[in-house]
Amino acid sequence: MRLYTTDRGIAREDRVGTLRLLDLPCHDLGDLLSGPGLDAARTAAVTQELDLAEATLLAPVVRPGKILIVGLNYPSHAEEALEAFAAMGRGDITMPTEPNMQVIAGSATIGPAADIKLPAIAPNEVDYEGELAVVIGKAAASVPADRAWDHVAGLTIANDLGARDIQRRAMTGDPVASIGLAKSFDTFKPLGPCLVTTDEFAEGVDLSLQTRVNGEVRQDDRTSNFIFSIAELVAHLSRFQTLQPGDVICTGTPRGAGAFTGRYLRAGDEVEVTIEHIGALRNRVTAA
């Protein structure tokens, strides 16, 4: 099932390119997941049909309770990142033996087609990271990996933007900087365009992911190359805090982010992240 949050409410795409607005007491999928649940979207009456191209799409979960980002979850990215850390004098950082996690403000979320705004205090080294995002459907606290998939509502696309200069300050010991701060600026977590429920995927989730900037492919990998699977991520993160319906986990990015080539985002750029069977997330970059 493919579900969208629109400016008119929740919609289901039963036919490619056509949305059916649903008669639900919820305005976005976060409310649906924490309330009546996905089954309500399967059975809800249809109030109107409209073309997908004409719909105003919001983030599937407009304001997640929390966003958890996982670092170094593709071997290709881990290798380039460890080289960069070593150059910064952080040779103590090695390949992860368990997931690396940061908590990000839900207020950073925007939807497809919304603008990414370069922050006034850190506009020069804003970087993209195309990622597969997991949306929690059922509360998860210390769940084992073999049951973790049952707690996932579905998958969407994320662009895990960050201000690399602030991130670098955090990595080199600046006490007033943090990775979470660098990645929590307003508009730094585009999500969308839809939520595709887990019944449309095998649990191993082998999907092609590409990130383009102004049409140029910058990242190209497959989610089957994860170091830690979705089930392992959910199980691990749920040991530290209860994952609630509507929470979002960004599962990591592959090789090719701008920090490793010095090609940061500038006003006027368009970033497109595409993931097989989910769609495309497109956002334009604007000045502060």
From TrEMBL:
GO biological process entries: carboxylic acid metabolic process
**Entry-linked SUPFAM superfamilies:** FAH
Outline the extent of the Fumarylacetoacetase-like C-terminal domain: 66-285
Record bears the keyword Iron-sulfur: no
Its lineage opens with: Bacteria, Bacillati, Actinomycetota, Actinomycetes, Mycobacteriales
Extract the PANTHER family matched here. Answer: FUMARYLACETOACETATE HYDROLASE DOMAIN-CONTAINING PROTEIN 2A, FUMARYLACETOACETATE HYDROLASE DOMAIN-CONTAINING PROTEIN 2A-RELATED
Alphabetized GO MF terms:
hydrolase activity; isomerase activity; metal ion binding
Protein name, as recorded: Fumarylacetoacetate hydrolase
State the UniProt keywords alphabetically: Hydrolase, Metal-binding
Its family remark reads: Belongs to the FAH family.
Matches recorded under InterPro entries = FAH (IPR051121), Fumarylacetoacetase-like_C (IPR011234), Fumarylacetoacetase_C_sf (IPR036663)
